[in-house]
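lol ok so funny story. i was supposed to be doing the assay writeup but got distracted and ended up predicting the structure for this chain instead. priorities right. anyway since i did it might as well share w the group, maybe its usefull for someone
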Amino acid sequence: MVDGRELLARIGMTEKEADARAKEYENDLWDAASLSKPRRGRPSLANERVKPYTVRFPVSLMAYVDECAQAHGWTRSEELRRMVADARDRASAE
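and the output, tada:
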């Protein structure tokens, strides 16, 4: 799960800027015309095309993935992406 600071970093905004925008909105002082058009769906995870995959794992292996994810404070999907990317990096270094 993404925390507030990471979310702000992803959208390129400081906490101070977010607070200022929230105050404008709460006081009905914001300019709706200055906002960009909302986009549908989740934000992209990479600077390339992404595609969902369904795979089957033994329960014990997924339990290990879940333990690692919890230790890092990441979701299962984030942990799996990291594990695969790390394996790729190790293989290309050999």
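Residues 19 and 25 are 10 Å apart (CA to CA). Helices lie at 4-11, 15-26, 59-72, 76-93.
back to the writeup now i swear
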